[in-house]
Q: What sequence folds into this?
């Protein structure tokens, strides 16, 4: 959704901050009313569901008013800053209508670079807004617009009930069934849906028009005893939405096992000494996962619930859950099947660091086909991990522990690694999940088949 800035440069509307981003949390202002700012000077620091973003001024001018306070959620397209432009300034603080035919340059669209910062186009485009681009155009996420297109419904005549008047998937479904009032008296008759509407509730992306779907059930919380209130903003809000959507959509089952990684630990220690760098077990486990997925491709897949299709993937785009101060993030190592365990280790280190300092590129947070969650790094053993939708499986790796084992009738001190695999039962049968885990255990217990000699 490209945001068309007012042509008189009196108001700056919050631009697109990334594909699919409809709003952002205001973290801090970098300017104050009365300040003279230069073109491209940072106005504010915003937080989307993935990154911290610096919002630059599209032009030079004097700040008249700042719209929003720290912690506010600002919708894309809302007025962020008002400028004073001398005698040409308008007394009104309301943004001009999108169908205003005033002449002048359009401020264009702000685009994000891989560092999470915003850059302005080198030259602005000259466009005249049309009536179809006016205020009658509905606000909606890409997923909801797709639902409307598939059902042959004009989304601009649907009455939105979401935050800021956004149209939600439920609004589309209600409109199709004739249970919602038209957006205006001139709205076109409601067309009949071309297909059953049941899949609509399981759209490929969670509806971001409300803070959480759980908010539909409100329970009064007594203020007594509360020592801190933490709002569902930024990444944590996105996590809440994604996990809730995954649990509502997928049919989880979990199978657990243990792997004797005594020999793998000896290999890891040998490589660590040889390379002179610290190596964790994780890249070795990731290498084994890639090999196991090659034998069990059903687990390396995505589900398109709207189209009712299972997409088996060739490349292994391996997600690795990273615990940060801002919440859980899952960067993706694309083409992990082609990397050595040393390359895997370097890539994990790079992406984990980028997640923690909020510079990870958006393309590295999407496109996953299978996810690993290293719960053992926090001291856990077995887990029941929640699938990273639209993937169909996730592996939780527990804390390795030393224990007494037996082999060929003899006792020995060994190292055991707990493994927990959650799968979407709609796609992966229980037996196949168990077979995959058995294959993985076999690879981890026989590292000589997976790794070069030290």
A:
């Amino acid at each position: 959704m490209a945001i068309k800035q007012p042509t008189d440069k009196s108001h700056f509307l919050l631009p697109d901050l990334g594909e699919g981003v409809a709003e952002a949390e205001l973290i801090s202002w970098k300017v104050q009313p009365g300040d003279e700012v230069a073109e491209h000077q940072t106005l504010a620091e915003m937080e989307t569901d993935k990154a911290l973003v610096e919002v630059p001024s599209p032009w030079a001018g004097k700040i008249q008013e700042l719209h929003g306070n720290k912690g506010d959620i600002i919708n894309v397209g809302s007025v962020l800053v008002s400028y004073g432009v001398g005698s040409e300034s308008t007394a009104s603080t309301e943004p001009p209508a999108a169908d205003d035919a005033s002449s002048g340059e359009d401020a264009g669209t702000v685009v994000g670079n891989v560092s999470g910062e915003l850059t302005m186009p080198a030259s602005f485009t000259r466009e005249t807004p049309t009536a179809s681009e006016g205020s009658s155009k509905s606000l909606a996420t890409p997923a909801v617009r797709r639902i409307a297109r598939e059902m042959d419904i004009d989304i601009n005549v649907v009455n939105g009930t979401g935050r800021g008047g956004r149209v939600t998937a439920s609004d589309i479904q209600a409109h199709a069934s004739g249970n919602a009032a038209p957006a205006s008296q001139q709205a076109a008759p409601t067309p009949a849906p071309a297909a059953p509407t049941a899949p609509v509730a399981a759209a490929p992306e969670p509806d971001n028009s409300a803070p959480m779907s759980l908010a539909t059930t409100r329970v009064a919380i007594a203020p007594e005893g509360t020592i801190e209130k933490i709002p569902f903003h930024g990444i944590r809000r996105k996590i809440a939405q994604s996990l809730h959507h995954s649990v509502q959509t997928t049919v989880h089952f979990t199978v657990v096992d243990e792997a004797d990684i005594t020999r793998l630990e000896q290999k890891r220690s040998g490589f660590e000494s040889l390379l002179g760098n610290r190596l964790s077990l994780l890249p070795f486990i990731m290498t084994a996962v890639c090999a196991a997925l090659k034998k069990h491709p059903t687990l390396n897949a995505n589900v398109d619930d709207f189209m009712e299709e299972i997409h088996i993937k060739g490349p292994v785009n391996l997600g690795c859950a990273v615990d940060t101060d801002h919440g859980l993030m899952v960067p993706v190592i694309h083409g992990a099947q082609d990397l050595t365990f040393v390359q895997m280790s370097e890539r994990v280190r790079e992406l984990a660091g980028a997640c923690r300092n909020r510079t990870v590129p958006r393309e590295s947070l999407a496109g996953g086909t299978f996810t690993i969650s290293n719960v053992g790094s926090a001291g856990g053993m077995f887990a029941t991990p929640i699938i990273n939708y639209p993937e169909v499986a996730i592996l939780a790796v527990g804390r390795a522990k030393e224990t007494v084992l037996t082999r060929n009738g003899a006792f020995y001190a060994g190292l055991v690694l707990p493994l927990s695999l959650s799968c979407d039962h709609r796609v992966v049968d229980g037996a196949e999940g168990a077979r995959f885990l058995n294959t993985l255990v076999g690879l981890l217990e026989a590292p000589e088949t997976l790794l070069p000699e030290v």
